[in-house]
Design a protein that fits this description.
297 residues, alpha/beta, five-stranded mixed beta sheet, 11 helices, globular
Length: 297
């Protein structure tokens, strides 16, 4: 017969064993990702999300991508609610979203203004100096030659007599809806459904200037017969890529990794990745992984 004290000891041992079994069974399940990178509905957003998630994973972090969260307001709401912890953005559009009255235009100034305008709990790291997603200003080659217009600054004295056509390039992050050319108060603005329609209208004289979102590499043929005006003075506000994330989430090693991504990413490479996904049906994760490998990131 087992004594009462022995029974109590045996009971305690069985409880401990049961708890250990429960913990062991729970540990058999894969832990939830510690960092979820959000992606909106655009191809660019999905590519950037995969790049950031892949780069952070290579620091040892557990990462996942939450795809197709919607437009800017949707994925920023997910970030605010901590359903995702990182998103890719354009500096100028992000600034316009949080501070519609901001007037700065140069990349570093825009980055600083974004940091100041962000709600408590959100921060950014380095912007990608080489990834310039600003809208491009277009004229017909004949008009540019006739008026000796080579830059946006040269165009300024003529803007009041011109109607400008605007078009979004498919696949890009959404603009803030406030794209403008500083110093150019156009007589009227007409929206077109795509770059091809804008080009046709320019060549037909229906509009006299064009504002095309993003780099021409994403709209092949959109500038045929047209002149792309230089904009060294950033009359069109900077739209460099940068990551937005929750404050206190990333350690210094992980932030440094995102800064390395910013230092390597270029307009041409990002456009090529977007086109591979948009036009060829490549998987964003595969495209991002290949880019990270190519840059030893």
């Amino acid at each position: 017969m087992v004594s009462a004290p022995s029974q109590r000891v045996l009971a305690r041992l069985l409880v401990v064993a049961s708890v250990a079994l429960v913990v062991s069974c729970g540990n058999d399940e894969s832990p939830a990702p510690s960092i979820t990178v959000g992606a909106g509905d655009s191809v660019e957003s999905s590519v950037l999300a995969e790049i950031y998630a892949g780069a952070l994973a290579r620091t040892g972090a557990r990462t996942a991508v939450a795809p197709r969260l919607g437009g800017r307001a949707d994925y920023l709401a997910a970030l605010d609610a901590d359903r995702v912890q990182v998103v890719g953005e354009h500096a100028g559009a992000l600034l316009a979203h949080f501070d519609e009255h901001a007037s700065v235009r140069l990349p570093k100034e825009v980055a600083s203004a974004v940091s100041a305008a962000l709600p408590e709990g959100l921060v950014v790291s380095d912007l990608a100096d080489g990834a310039d997603l600003r809208p491009r200003v277009l004229l017909t080659a004949q008009a540019a030659a006739h008026d000796k217009v080579r830059s946006v600054g040269d165009l300024a004295p003529h803007c009041g007599a011109l109607t400008v056509g605007v078009a979004a390039t498919p696949g890009l992050l959404p603009s803030a809806g406030k794209d403008r050319v500083t110093g150019c108060d156009f007589a009227a603005t007409v929206a077109f459904p795509d770059p091809a329609a804008l080009r046709k209208a320019l060549l037909a004289g229906e509009v006299q200037a064009g504002l095309l979102s993003g780099p021409l590499e994403l709209a092949p043929g959109a500038a045929d017969g047209l002149t792309v005006l230089s904009d060294d003075g950033y009359a069109v506000r900077a739209e460099n890529v940068l990551p937005l994330f929750r404050k206190g989430l990333l350690d210094q090693r992980q932030i440094k990794k995102l800064n390395y991504v910013a230092g390597e990413l270029t307009t041409d490479e990002l456009a090529a990745m977007i086109r591979r996904v948009r036009d060829e049906g490549a998987a964003p994760g595969d495209v991002a992984r290949a880019w990270l490998d190519d840059h030893a990131l």
